[in-house]
Design goal:
Length: about 425
């Protein structure tokens, strides 16, 4: 590696670091390979086992019942940023050190570019030697992006489990309401005084004849529709699903269901979404058939969103804000690190293109996740980018105050001499 030029060294280091990040993310995500929730039998759903998911649930319970999960995510993000703040400060100190080194080196780098414009190999050697003398850390330039990627995928794995857990809870709670309503109707219609106490009635207790079918499915009496037991049970589910407490947990500002994307997805997920057959990286519900799901959720599917039939869950606000804030954060971070002079001559266009690609990589990825995944994760990305920008401004302000104090002290010393 000692015989490689500076640019080649930098590219090789970036490739190795990217490979390390991908491997780390795969290992961390692979530690939680089972993301399914079995909703057959019992009245409870097993809680997520990912440590980030558990952390979010603890925060949610400490905030009390009926609090929107969107606000839970905001608090979770701020706490996570505070926990990672020592690492964040360390990164920024490296970036600040690099920035000062680049200020000193910039005239020399420009002179080297002019002197060795026709000798690319010699230019790279001289640049590499100058970076080494000034202790300019190439690793320090890549470190913030690497750590951001690792934290991003670890947190994403936690959100993936939380979303699936909420889908499972919504269905299980609805199933309990549905079965209770159905049992009460069957008891009122077919129960006898000889039945044992607390007997649970189900479809097997409905006679398999025309009368039983009319009782369960309903019928038309002239122009009047007479609701059957199934429809009445579905209405009970809809009433419970949209109760003030349940609705307040799922909704957040303009988003109808924070566990669904801030986009054109329906506010109440359908069977293919909750079972992981469609959508984007959601956990899966198991132990359920499409007929069972549609029977229980029949009155709430296609409701609660914008437009006819609840077509849109959100308004695309968070995905757009996530892209804008992520790009702004990248620009501020890049500026704070100090950038070398724009290369000239052969290969300059390629180098500038690579730099631009790196600046757009994270914002594009944020936009994809914000657009296609849950609104809860989009809230996390937005809050994380916003706090990162505010923290960077605060760090820069403190840095300027320290530099000014040092400069004033130096002027006093010079004046005394």
């Amino acid at each position: 590696m000692a015989y490689l030029g500076f640019e080649r060294k930098r590219k090789l280091q970036i490739y190795l670091l990217v490979a390390l990040v991908v491997l780390s993310c795969l290992i961390l995500v692979a530690c939680n390979t089972d993301n399914s929730y079995n909703v057959s039998g019992g009245d409870t759903v097993a809680e997520p086992d990912h440590f980030m998911a558990k952390f979010m649930l603890v925060i949610g319970r400490s905030m009390g019942s009926g609090v929107s999960f969107g606000w839970v995510v905001v608090v979770f993000t701020i706490i996570l940023r505070l926990i990672l703040s020592p690492l964040d400060i360390w990164q920024k100190m490296i970036a600040r050190k690099n920035s000062k080194a680049m200020e000193r080196m910039k005239p020399q780098l420009e002179a080297l570019q002019a002197k060795y414009a026709d000798d690319k190999q010699r230019l790279q050697q001289e640049q590499s030697a100058l970076y080494k003398r000034e202790k300019y850390s190439i690793m320090g330039m890549c470190l913030p992006t690497i750590i951001t990627f690792v934290v991003f995928f670890v947190v994403f794995a936690g959100f993936r489990q939380v979303v699936g857990y909420q889908f499972a809870q919504d269905y299980k709670n609805s199933q309990i309401v549905y079965n209770n309503s159905l049992s009460e109707q069957i008891e009122a219609k077919y129960g006898t005084a000889d039945d044992a106490e607390n007997k649970v009635y189900n479809l097997d207790d409905i006679p398999k004849d025309e009368e039983g079918a009319r009782f369960y499915f309903g019928y038309e009496d002239g122009e009047t529709h007479v609701a059957g037991a199934m429809e009445k049970a579905q209405e009970a589910v809809a009433k419970a699903y949209y109760s003030d407490e349940q609705k307040s947990v799922r909704s957040w500002l303009w988003i109808n269901n924070i566990f669904v994307g801030d986009n054109w997805y329906k506010a109440v997920p359908d069977f293919t979404t909750v079972t992981g057959q469609s959508g984007f990286a959601n956990s899966r519900l198991a132990g359920i058939t499409i007929d069972e799901y549609n029977a229980v959720m029949g009155k709430v599917l296609g409701t609660g969103g914008y437009g006819k039939g609840g077509s849109w869950n959100g308004l695309l606000v968070l995905p757009i804000l996530s892209i804008v804030l992520s790009f702004l954060s990248q620009k501020i971070l890049s500026k704070s690190q100090g950038q070398p002079p724009v290369p000239t001559g052969e290969g300059a266009a390629g180098a500038q293109g690579s730099m631009k690609m790196m600046q757009w990589l994270m914002p594009i990825m944020m936009g994809v996740f914000g657009l296609l995944y849950s609104g809860a994760f989009a809230v996390y990305m937005f809050t994380s980018s916003l706090t990162a920008i505010l923290f960077q401004f605060a760090f820069n302000l403190v840095g300027k105050i320290i530099d000014r104090a040092k400069e004033d002290k130096s002027n006093v010393i010079v004046a005394k001499r």
